Amino acid sequence: MKRVDLILSERELDGVLKAIDAAGAPGYSVIKHVTGKGPHGLVSDALDFSGLGANAHVIVFCEAALLAKLRVGIQPLLSYYGGVAYVSDAEPL
If DSSP codes are grouped into helix, strand and coil, which group holds residue 39? Predict the structure, then answer.
């Protein structure tokens, strides 16, 4: 089993979720208003009013065979709009 973690702008969330569904992923979790610091600097957590610039964290658990389909749908969106995605091994408890 694999775990895919995506950090992206909340503005692009709908497109990424559609790509995840189109790839056939069994499901996902979304955490909105994610803050932190990355290569492009600090993401402010003082965005409560407008939400402009806020990030989301999407977590997908899937079989390794699904990764190629996820890449096809997600990489173009991340390349154009920005964001990161990482894949790691996952083992159920």
Answer: coil
Location of structure tokens 């890449």: 71
Cα-Cα-Cα-Cα torsion 10, 58, 75, 55, nearest 10 degrees, comes to 30
Residues 9-59: pLDDT tens digits?
999 999 999 999 999 999 999 999 888 777 766 665 555 555 556 899 999
User: Which residue, chain included where needed, has tokens 């996902």?
Assistant: 28
| pTM listed for this prediction | 0.86
In this model, does residue 90 exceed pLDDT 80?
yes
Spatial distance between the Cα atoms of 71 and 6, rounded to a whole number of angstroms:
12
* Sequential DSSP letters for 55-69: EEEEEEEE-GGGHHH
**Cα separation of 79 and 14, whole Å?**
16
d(CA 89, CA 75): 19
